[in-house]
TrEMBL record, chain A:
Family to which the UniProt record says this protein belongs: Belongs to the glutamate--cysteine ligase type 2 family. YbdK subfamily.
Bilayer-spanning residue ranges: none
GO molecular function, one term: glutamate-cysteine ligase activity
Alphabetic keyword roster: ATP-binding, Ligase, Nucleotide-binding
This protein's name: Putative glutamate--cysteine ligase 2
Pfam families with a match to the protein in the record: GCS2
Gene3D superfamilies: 3.30.590.20
Purpose of the protein: ATP-dependent carboxylate-amine ligase which exhibits weak glutamate--cysteine ligase activity.
EC number assigned by the record: 6.3.2.2
Lineage: Bacteria, Pseudomonadati, Pseudomonadota, Betaproteobacteria, Burkholderiales
From TrEMBL, chain B:
Pfam family, one: Na_H_Exchanger
InterPro entries in UniProt: Cation/H_exchanger_TM, Na+/solute_symporter_sf
Protein name, as recorded: Sodium/hydrogen exchanger
Entry membrane topology: Multi-pass membrane protein
Organism (species): Mycoavidus cysteinexigens
Record-annotated Cation/H+ exchanger transmembrane domain positions: 24-382
CC per GO annotation: membrane
Keywords annotated in UniProt: Membrane, Transmembrane, Transmembrane helix
Length: 371, 396
């Protein structure tokens, strides 16, 4: 099997996918209702679409192709409202967050779809432990080579995106000490991590066919990379974010990536080397563990700054691009968040400290999501 | 006569009631496990069989006096289960999805109407018919909660089963109260007493419910140790309803509903009131069939069958009529309609309460109801198992 051809798309357009949690309204544990929700929403007209995910406690919504912050917000708002209305009819709650605070992975049921059965067969319990909820953002690229350039230059900003979106401090009823514990589950998969360093599409095609011939993978879907190209959409897909607790934050983070893409492709501020990845896992870990207070090492000059400082500097550089893209408001939201150092993980820990109950914490997550 | 050997027991040995209770529980436990492990039958079917054998229809090892003591245990066990059931009824859900209330009213009204017709065709007296039809509205809360816990089932059918059961149990108690005003008038002929009786009973029970729910809200239910306080509160509430001759069933069910709906924060305690609650549930299943006698079958067996058939059809029709608009598929509606069939301790206690107030009431009532309970308690658990498997909601 060959790699699909790269269909160029309009640069800096973007699409957002959000995996959201389905909980009951009794104890707010994950529940089994994805198929019921799908039945209720399938005839509704929405921008983008809504689909089943690997377990029955998860549903994914995706916007159509967006060009700016307000459009993304509107699309997400419509999708959210359609789902929330259906959820109320079924007496279930919906919420964001990268992990469910206290679900037991062994209780999960794999959705009845051939691909999910295959994954469950192959990965065993990892498939059920993969009940984590992420935000994926696709960014349109003019051609195949620039998609690879964008992929590798965006890698430098992965810690920013992790720290901004982090919303998974609790796993199976425990505070993990991490801001994003979700990414630890993703790391268990053999094909996770970073894409191989090549800046020419022909090089990537060669890598892909070698991998196919080893029999380890059968399609692009088998790569669980942090960022991966999506040739048939003509995009690169950034996959490190936890699902934020509100659509406003999800839209703002998507626009941050959009502005970054424009900055990286037009201003070309970086020269890329394989050695940039020497610090990649360290920076990524710092972001997962400490959030905005984590350290970020610049791979080219070894300079160390907190992720928060690094984001504030980046926001300044992005300002003109944000203006061009009509997403300045999104960056204002993020600047406030970074200055106050309050990502969703901090919010969740605050609520838990105040209420002393993870059940109540999840209930408040649902309130945040539906308003 | 004391002698040097009086430390030895008298011969023959006379086992006391603890012995028989212990033996009955042992047999119930073994029979339940046998049902489950060997034949994949629900454990509670096994408990029912042992209750039947231990009682007057079998070896009669548990006599009337012990069965009377067991009434108190049944009240406690059922009270706690109703409290748990009530605390799962989300009134906000009913407000946002009014088709649910339509479903509930349809299945309850149809049940009442078809059972009345069926029993009239069987020549049962009109008053007995209305009492049975009122009780027939209720689905067994015990069985519903026990089976949900045992199967770890979750999903739309399970959720709706819990909600509809809470609602139809409530209708049954209140309707029976209203029917009994008619009996009151017939028996005592005092119009003032007739009019004030249901008012006292319903309002009094609701007042106890309110006080219990508000007290529970002050207890931190997340804390394992406060569980003792919670059980204490529930027992006190049951005792108070006994003292004031109010309805334990109505009070505890409503208390649960108030607890759930006055404060949006999740109010949780160990599901099924933990191991102690589970033991009480077993007792409930055993005791329900202890007072069954084979003569009931001759007297009311046929009418019981007619009632069961009418009731099942009515519940199925009521649910299916509104399945689609209420947001479930016809397949789920079918499963939900069938899972509403169980009848057990709740119905039994309503029958007994009727005889407490009107000791000379038509013996047909007990004969028909106990025959029906026998059949439904032994066979509907399997029906619920199948239905929940059929729509993929059981996990065990």
């Amino acid at each position: 099997m060959n790699l699909e051809t790269f269909n160029p798309s309009k640069p800096f357009t973007f699409g957002i996918e959000l995996e959201i949690q389905i909980v009951n309204t009794h104890d707010y544990d994950l529940t089994k209702a994805a198929s019921d929700l799908m039945r209720l929403v399938k005839d509704q007209k929405v921008p983008g679409d809504i689909k089943l995910e690997i377990t029955e406690s998860m549903i994914e919504l995706a916007t159509g192709i967006c060009t700016n912050y307000h459009q993304a917000l509107t699309d997400l708002g419509v999708l959210r409202d359609v789902l929330v209305t259906a959820a109320e009819k079924l007496n279930i709650g919906l919420c964001g967050g990268g992990t469910h605070a206290f679900q037991q992975w062994s209780d999960r049921q794999i959705s009845d779809e051939p691909r999910f059965h295959y994954i469950s067969e192959l990965y065993g319990y990892l498939a059920k432990q993969f009940t984590v909820f992420g935000q994926h953002v696709h960014i349109g690229c003019p051609d195949a080579d620039s998609s690879l350039f964008l992929l590798h230059s965006l890698s430098r900003y992965i810690p920013h995106l992790i720290a901004l979106s982090a919303s998974s401090p609790f796993v199976q009823g425990m505070d993990t000490g991490f801001h994003s514990a979700r990414l630890n589950s993703v790391f268990a998969f053999p094909m996770s991590g970073r894409a191989p360093f090549t800046l020419a599409w022909s090089g990537f095609e060669e890598y892909f066919s070698k991998m196919i011939s080893t029999g380890v993978i059968t399609s692009m879907k088998d790569f669980y990379w942090d960022i991966r190209p999506k040739p048939n959409f003509g995009t690169v897909e950034v996959r490190v974010m936890d699902t934020p607790l509100s659509i406003e934050k999800a839209a703002a983070i998507a626009c941050y990536i959009q502005a970054l893409a424009r900055y990286l492709l037009l201003d070309k501020p970086l020269t890329l080397h394989e050695d940039d990845y020497l610090v990649y896992n360290f920076n990524r870990f710092e972001a997962c563990r400490f959030g905005l207070a984590g350290m970020n090492v610049n791979p080219q000059n070894g300079e160390r700054r907190t992720i928060a400082q690094d984001i504030l500097i980046t926001l300044d550089a992005l300002a003109p691009h944000a203006q061009e893209l009509d997403c300045t408001d999104a960056l204002v939201v993020l600047r406030k968040l970074v200055q106050a150092q309050t990502n969703d993980a901090v919010w969740l820990r605050d609520i838990y400290r105040k209420e002393g109950s993870l059940h109540e914490t999840v209930r408040q997550q649902c309130l945040l999501w539906s308003h | 006569m004391k002698s040097a050997f009086s430390y030895l027991p008298h011969w023959p040995l006379v086992p006391d009631s603890v012995f028989w209770v212990g033996l009955t529980l042992l047999m119930a436990g073994l029979c339940g496990e046998l049902c489950w492990k060997a034949w994949r039958l629900p454990r509670i079917t096994g408990y029912g069989v042992i209750g039947l054998l231990a009682g007057s229809a079998g070896f009669g090892v548990i006599d009337g006096a012990l069965a009377n003591d067991a009434r108190f245990l049944m009240d406690v066990a059922l009270g706690m289960l109703l409290f748990e059931l009530g605390s799962r009824l989300n009134l906000r859900w009913i407000r946002t999805n009014p088709w649910l209330i339509a479903t509930s009213l349809a299945e309850a009204t149809l049940t009442f109407a078809t059972v009345v017709i069926a029993l009239q065709l069987m020549n049962v007296s009109l008053m007995t018919t209305t009492v049975i039809a009122s009780i027939a509205i209720a689905t067994s809360p015990t069985m519903v909660i026990q089976l949900k816990t045992e199967l770890k089932s979750e999903g739309q059918v399970t959720e709706r089963l819990l909600a509809l059961t809470a609602l139809n149990s409530m209708y049954a108690v209140i309707l029976l109260e209203l029917v009994s005003t008619w009996m009151h008038q017939e028996y005592y002929g005092n119009l003032f007493a007739t009019l004030t009786e249901p008012l006292y009973l319903i309002l009094g029970s609701l007042a106890v419910a309110y006080v219990l729910a508000r007290s529970c809200q002050r207890v931190n239910l997340q804390d394992e140790h406060s569980f003792v306080i919670l059980i204490g509160l529930v027992l006190l509430a049951i005792a108070i309803t006994h003292m004031l001759e109010l309805s334990t069933l109505l009070a505890l069910l409503t208390a649960g509903i108030i607890l759930k709906n006055f404060d949006p924060r999740p109010q949780l305690w160990p599901a099924h009131f933990g191991t102690a609650g589970w033991l009480l549930t077993v007792v409930l299943f055993v005791v329900t069939l202890i007072s069954f006698q084979w003569s009931y079958i001759a007297l009311g067996g046929l009418a019981a069958l007619a009632m069961i058939g009418a009731r099942m059809l009515a519940k199925l029709a009521g649910v299916l009529a509104f399945a689609k608009p209420s947001g479930i598929s016809m397949k789920q509606g079918l499963a939900l309609g069938l899972t509403l069939a169980p009848m057990s301790a709740f119905a039994y206690l309503l029958v007994e309460n009727t005889y407490n107030l009107y000791p000379d009431f038509d013996p047909n009532l007990r004969a028909i109801m106990l025959s029906a309970i026998l059949i439904l308690q032994l066979f509907t658990p399997l029906l619920v198992y199948w239905s929940l498997s059929f729509i993929g909601e059981r996990r065990q």
